[in-house]
Amino acid sequence: MLSSDVRPNKRSGGAEEGIIMNSRLSTSTAGHRRRRAVAGLLAASLLAVACGSEDEASTDTATDSAAEPGTDATTDASTDATADLGVDTIEVMSRWAAGSSEADAFDAAAASFTEQTGVKIDVIGQAEEDLDVIYEAALLGGTEPHIVIVNLFDKSIAWLDNGATVDVAAYADEWGVADGIDGDALGEWTLDDGRVQGFPYSGFAWPIWYNTALLSDAGIETVPTTVDELKTATAALRDAGIGPVAVGGSDWSGQKLFMQVAQSYLDTDTTKSLLGSGGWCANPQALAGIELFNELLVAGVFVDDVEGFTADLMNESYYNGDAAIMPAGSWAFANTPEDVLAATQIGGFPLPSDAAFGAPTVYQGFTGVGFMVSPRGESEALPAVEAFIKHMYSEDVYGSFVELANIVPAIQLTDTSVATNPLLQTALSTDYVDGTDIALLMDVHVPPASGDAVNQAIALAYNGADANEVCGLIDAGY
Amino acid sequence: MPGSASTRETPSSKKTSRSGRGLWSFTLPAAAWYFIFTVGPLVAMVWLSLVSWPGLLADKEWVGFENYQRIWGDRFFWQAFRNTAIQLVVAVPIMIPLSFMLGYYLSMKPRGHRLLSVLFFTPGLLSITAKGMIFFGMFAPNGAVNGLLESTGLETFTRSWTSDPDTALATVIAVDLWGGIGWTAVLFAARLTSVPTDVYEAASLDGAGHLRRIRSIAYPMTKDFVGVMTMLQFLWTLFNSAAIVLLLTRGGPAGKSSTLSYYVYERAFSAQQVGYSQSVGVVLALIGIVGLVVIRRTIRQDY
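Above: the input entities. Below: the structure tokens describing the complete assembly.
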């Protein structure tokens, strides 16, 4: 099963106007330099993780090594645990599915928090698809959890404006957490007016996975970087009896890939505008992007019956060697079989010759998972919430998440170790950053009211509908 | 004259008055429950259909009949309407006759009829979620249906059943039929066992076969019950399809398998247009009432 902590877009969601501006998703040169700088920081942080985290999950000693300037976020809450935290239990609702590596890491972190402070962590709900609905229903009944661990996506984007969660800007500063959080990560969770929706905990890298062994079996020795190369590889793979690109044509994974291809000829601002208010049919470059998708479909780039595939089936096909290529995020790094891991090279989706991007595209960001505080959490259990947040950002706990769950960190760690997962190492490497361009993720830009219609149109695209019908259906949703 | 028999309270009227009060005291709790939890939500639904409510946490704004005006131009509503009509026209006429004949067979108490009854009733005991997951797997590209087709040399008929615009709605209807035929047959069997067997014997002596007995004896004698079951299946199909659609197809692709029941859910919880979803709900309720009246008038006992 996929680990799902950083899966931000189960359905196309949307943002209220003027919410998060993700500066990291810029395709400018400045954006490249910034990405390299952040990648360097994150890579250094990963060096901290693997060596230091094994024996430190439940001890206080890790805090001693974290006492560096600018790392206020890593203060161990256990040293403050002697204060009365006011409640015996903190209630948490989590999007980390039971049994996932993230949930396991969280359970360990919760146990160590309880051991240090005596305050229990009660996970009253674990849900992926319906967490937002469940939380809202609980809120209306006055029984919402103190903390909700959630994607910044769809309904959760509007929670701060609707009073479903509280502004944590002041708390992030007071608690000393803000300084340790990556600036871009915090930026993605900050509204234009400075309010902060939650504490970002993990980001995501969302590359294209290429099984180089299968490609080699088909006579393809290099990963395709252009559409023409992809079509050549497709023909060779099919001749060898290997499926080309597997993707969940009926769910969120296919929706994201469709949008990734559809924006091939668009700049970021135009894409943002189209996602937010429609007008795809009227924009020639947008229409050309949809036509490109159709062209790839007709060329057999996607596996047979792709319209019926789900993300789980996509992973299964890739892991079993039935497909050579798939788009999957960093949440899948941890669960990849060893032999597939060894053969996998990650990169961007190939570009057409006149694309608006300079390099094959990937998705990347920090809206994966964060901690939001509920009104009940603020009014009833703030000291305990503070202690818990600090505990989760402590180096030993955070390190265990990076090591066990391969999350893309949203904070700066000072302890250095070697990263355990090669794909995660690659995703943070300079070569990867330089060799890819970031596409705009649809989640925070498509309004909730239009999301379902957009998804339905994309489903039709995977069934081979022509570009005009698809763009018409997308626009009809706005 | 005062105290005449016509005005004086008699012992029988006292008894009637006491029994009337007794009847009310027993009925009042149930009536209160009904009004609070059935009539109340219906009234709330109508009221909410007159407001704009963009999400459970947002404020409501009075818009009058604007939501209803919007329905007329909503292509997704009319697509769901068409799909619902297809679903009803296909599922109910198939389910009722088939389950009636199956029920007749069970009422004849053939060998193993108890085991058959259990087998036929079991789909009705499965939760919607279990049913949805079973058939989601069966209809998947690598699922049992395609596997069976491939193993029998019919690879050309394999497809993504729940994602193909031509078959998505059919998969929803198929699950309805699978879950409803056997269960309804057991209910019919229970009613048909009360038909006197000597009537069947007399008919068989006159040379009537099973089909003739079903048409001329079993059906006429249980027509009222058939009407009730038809009405119930109509209502269940009309109002309860949202869950299976959500689990199997999510109304896709492009609304090809969306039904009115699912559309109410989708507009409320996915699109966050709660007020508009309730206006669709009111239309759905009216369709249900009209259908209910038509069925009851059409299929009723001929005494």
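Note for the figure: Chain A is about 40% helix and 10% strand.
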